Write the structure tokens for this entry.
Amino acid sequence: MYSLRGVIVILCALLSASRAQDDVKKGPCDVFIQDVNNLTLNCSRRNIDRIPAWPEEIHKIAGKDACVLITFFNNSITNVTELGTVPGNKIAISFKSNRIKEIEDDAFKNIHRLVYLDLSSNRLSGDVLRSEIFQGPYKNGVYSEISLETLNLGYNQIHSLDKYLFQYTPNLTRLYLNNNPIEILDHVTILAISSATKLEVLDLAKTDIDAIPLETFRGLVNLKQIDLSGNQFLTVPESLSLVGSTLQYLTFNNNPLVELNDDSFLGLSNLLELEVGENNYLDEVKRSTFTPLKSLRVLHLCHNKKLKYISHNAFRGLKEKWTLKEVYLDDNNLSELSTDLLPWDKLEVLGMTGNNWLCNCDLANIVTKQNAGSKFKPGEIPYCAAPMRLSGAYITNITVSFCPQFDTTFALKKRFSVSDLRPKHVLWSILGVGTVVGIGMICGLFFNFIKAFFKKNLRSQPIQYVNINDDLA
């Protein structure tokens, strides 16, 4: 997900921090020189409250592509003052887990090749963070830029960012704002984020936001990865479609969404990996939910404790040009899956553990006939929860032998012949005809009797005419 150089720098910084012993040291910082190209200055866990001067050994680095790693992890530093010059082409500094609540202007101007800076787990507020912190040396009437590529501001007290914060860091590609009480991406914060036009990774996890305005992504034409976990989103933000042509990794865990539908991932045609997990209210994945994800390779749909239904058309339109290689459906509330949900035999890895599987004919078809049983990782074969006689058995052990077998061939129609008649058939035919004739005769006699009765008793009487004049006389 990260660029190779970024990963190397981050791992090196973590490695240097791990070399510190668990007990607090009070001596000078430790210097580890691997060669002329690699030096680590470990000042972690020293109970220091201010930044010391650099030791002389730090100037022994002479390689053209020298990498210098400096860590002040887990101290009591409250103020970052102007740092001394550090030789090297790639410099990483970590102030993680201190008590920093102030950073002086020009703090990093002497470290022009600073590419990685970790200020996470401190007491920084948005008012403290300003562009003057990151400005380089003053030359010809202007401040120069620094080479910062990765900035970690996670676990602080940031509500908002200054709109000019990244004015002197044009190469910023990874920004971590996770675990800050941002709540609302206000206008100035949006301007700050959108000004980092080379940004590739953006972490907004656990910032209590519930919306991302469209303007946030308008300038981020290189964004590849975003983490929106642990927020208050009821739906996947529509604004993500603005970076759909570049976005490759989306993490959307632990949000209060109830369903995923055909609008959830519109425009994300180049997404390679999607993670939607730990969403405690998600109970349904509807028709055509994943249809827009035409390049998806890995799907994590795990740990959604109420998810009990996935539409058999959830991947509608993708089966003809199937790209998915790994699908993880672990630890949901699923019991059944449709046999045509996806082309099971085209997967490379399938995860289904931690569900209450009903081992019926459909599941047997998926596991055996469609070869899904061979896609499970070793030690991660799911169990049957029902019916009772199969409870606790691996789903790979069930077969289709107990399922009804239907003959789909058509038998030729046989013509009738006199030789097919049997005595009982003739007898029943005679009795049937006699019964019908008898009933007809009885009905005819009854009808004639009724007709004769009415003629005899209800015959019409002749009309008699009376002369009115004779009556009056």
